[in-house]
Amino acid sequence: MFYRYGRGDEPDLQPTKNWIRRVLLYGAYLDGTRYYYSPDVFLFFFSRLLEENPDSDIHQDTVPLPREHIQKRINADGDAMELAIRILACYSLGIRHKIDLTKQLSLQQEDGGWEIGYLCRTGKTGSRLVNRGYTIALAVNAVGALLTTRALSRNGILIDEGFVESNA
């Protein structure tokens, strides 16, 4: 929000940016956080921050780290929500692969949707907040992003060197 409204360089924001960098650098998110049970959630929101602010100091200082960390998460276990946000995080960081896409498609249900996914939890009780519609929306966006990229590259319109053909 600070970057969106031109306040990303405010000195009072520096301690928060330093904390975010340390969480990423030391992998403090790997076991989840108080509010996000999955490491993929942290990486998803961090990748969104970078995607929305390509000229920011935080983008320039950290962009190699989330790429490295999200690549390590490829093919990790996860529900439909985790797979979707991992695919979208990879996509926004320029990483294209079909390993998680294949897993995502295998979880699609007969009605065309996906099971309920867990994005976050409450801090005090740890109750997971669920929304099947949000899971489906993320999954559709994730599948659409990768399949569109593949279709375009096969037609010679777009060559995306980052899409790795893999048979995992």
What does this structure look like?
The chain is mainly alpha-helical and 168 residues long. It has one domain. It has 7 helices and 4 strands. It has helices at 14-26, 39-52, 57-62, 64-73, 80-92, 99-106, 132-154; strands at residues 96-97, 118-121, 128-130, 163-164. The strands form 2 sheets. A two-stranded parallel ribbon has the order 1-4. Strand 2 (118-121) and strand 3 form a beta hairpin. Helix 5 runs antiparallel to helix 6. The longest helix is centred in the last third of the chain and has 23 residues, at 132-154. It is globular and about 50 Å long. The model is unreliable at 151-168 (pLDDT under 50).
Outline the fold blueprint.
Layout lengths: L13 H13 L12 H14 L4 H6 L1 H10 L6 H13 L3 E2 L1 H8 L11 E4 L6 E3 L1 H23 L8 E2 L4
Parallel strand pairs: 1-4
Antiparallel strand pairs: 2-3
Q: Main traits of this protein?
A:
disordered C terminus, globular, two-stranded parallel ribbon, mainly alpha, two-stranded antiparallel ribbon, single chain, 168 residues
Beta-strand percentage range: 5-15%
Topology pattern, helix = H, strand = E: HHHHHEHEEHE
The parts where pLDDT drops under 50 for at least 5 residues are 151-168
| CA(first)-CA(last) distance | 38 Å
Query: Widest sheet: strand order?
Result: 1-4
Helix content: 40-55%
| Count of discrete alpha- or pi-helical segments spanning 4 or more residues | 7
Task: Using the CA coordinates, give the radius of gyration.
Answer: 17 Å
Structural class: mainly alpha
What oligomerization state is this entry in?
A: single chain
Count of domain modules: 1
Reported for the largest beta sheet, the result is: 2 strands, parallel
